[in-house]
Amino acid sequence: MSRKVRDYFELVSPQWDVMRKNFYGEDVREAVLNAVHLGPSDTVLDIGAGTGFLTEAAAKIASKVIAVDLSRGMSEEAIAKMGSGNVEFRIGNVESMPLQDSSVDAVIGNMVLHHCPHPEIAISEISRVLKPSGRIAISDLQEHSYEWLRKEHADLWLGFRMEEVAAMMKKNRLDNVKVDALPSCCSSMQEEQQIKIPMFLASALKRDSRERKLVV
Fold first, then answer.
1. How confident is the model at residue 84 (pLDDT cuts 50, 70, 90)?
2. Does domain 3-202 have CATH number 3.40.50.150?
3. In angstroms, rounded to a whole number, what is the distance separating the alpha carbons of residues 138 and 54?
4. How many CB atoms are closer than 10 A to CB 73?
5. Which of 41, 125, 197, 206 is buried most deeply by CB count within 10 Å?
């Protein structure tokens, strides 16, 4: 990820939990966790974990959560809030993650892709670290035209077309791909007017390369 993105989140990290509540609500977290079907024996990777919006809830279900974020400040806020427990915090880039191949059972993330210089590389990295038959569920912004978000919130992409996200997933050994609109929107303020940007939820399974189709 870019220095611009890292610097932005370092700056806002002390206020992020308050800021985030104005952008999106708890229903987004519920949708992501429902889609990924976590179990008590799972090792889960939370990409762009921030101050623990998804991490904290996942840690109550899974055996272990690895929370990766580019910003040390955001990770420190998360640790101060929830402690470590069964969560391992790592500073890292989503496009080059500090994890071994096929090392996690599930990947979750919220509002990460639009901060990635190369979203397709991020999807490839997610597929790489997932175990065969592992699950992914991530939420983000649908395509929009609010250019000012590039400056105010260090957005690198103005959301994504849902079919574009589905294509990136299918290209990277992910099956059962589903990309649907969320009932939630991301809200923000511009010149004292509230805008609402539709969000999506993308989920998939990693193909098990050991599986062979039965030839009749």
1. confident
2. yes
3. 10
4. 18
5. 206
